[in-house]
Structures are given as C-alpha cells and as structure tokens.
Amino acid sequence: MLRYIAIPVLLMSFMLSACQTSMLKQYNKVKAGMEKDDVLDIMGSPQRTQRFHGKDRWTYVFYDQRIRFEKEVHFFENNAIYVGDIWQPEESKSAFAMDKANDQRNVEIDSQIAKDLETHRRAYESYESQARGTDKVRYLPTFEPIR
C-alpha cells in the first residue's frame, strides 16, 4: 500500500523539480522589442513599477545561487526599449550634479542682483541730488563774524 502512494509522490516531486529554472536564465530570454505581455509570460509580475515621461520601468529582484540581482525592463508604447541592470543617469545629469550646478547659478544670480541694487541706489542718489540742485556749487557769501 505504501508503495502505491510513494511512487506517484516521488514522480510528482521529480516532475516539479525539473520545471524549476533559474530566474537569471529566464531574464536572459527577455530582449528589447518584446511586448509587455511577452515579458510577463517569461518573468511574471515585477516587484516594482514606475511611470515617468511616458515610459514604464519594471524592476525585477531575484536571487540566483545566493547572489541578489536587480534587473530592469523599460517600455515605451508597450515595447521594451531597455533590458539590463538598474539604469543610472550620467554623472553630469544626476540630481546631485544638477542641484550643485543650480546652487552655483543661484549664487551668481544673487551676486549680480546685489551689484545691480548698488548701481541703482547710486543712480537714484545722483538723480535726487540733480533734482534738488545739491550737485551744483552755489555762491555762498562769506560773512565776517561779529566782534
């Protein structure tokens, strides 16, 4: 009796173990130009999705022989346009570099505003003195002090 139960269980375990494939091997089947449905058939649902500037970004996280992999597939108009490791922008286009450039530009703008403010203040003082006539030397009589 035990033999009749053990043989089917043993056969099922062999069949199921043969169906397991490496996620890395499955991921290597994904190519640029594939549609979303094809990628879903191969890889299954992604762990993370993002939509940015009309592009979908799917991230898959999996382990193969105790090594952690994070891979991405980018889609534009339902077709894969990028397949590979996590995409990072160029160093010059990163948020940190852009913030640093913007901070430098803001410092330059602030110093220019300060210079313009001083120039305008001096121009206004000059205009005021001309309007009041204080910029011209007037004849002042000299008085002899009384003794």
Automatic annotation (TrEMBL):
Tell me where in this chain the Outer membrane protein assembly factor BamE domain is found: 26-68
Alphabetically list the UniProt keywords.
Membrane, Signal
Question: Per its record, how is this protein called by name?
Answer: Outer membrane protein assembly factor BamE domain-containing protein
Q: Which Pfam families match?
A: BamE
Q: Signal sequence: where?
A: 1-18
The record's Gene3D superfamilies line, in alphabetical order, gives: 3.30.1450.10
What organism does the UniProt record list as the source?
Answer: Bdellovibrio bacteriovorus
Q: What Gene Ontology cellular component terms go with this record?
A: outer membrane
InterPro entries xref list: BamE-like, BamE_dom
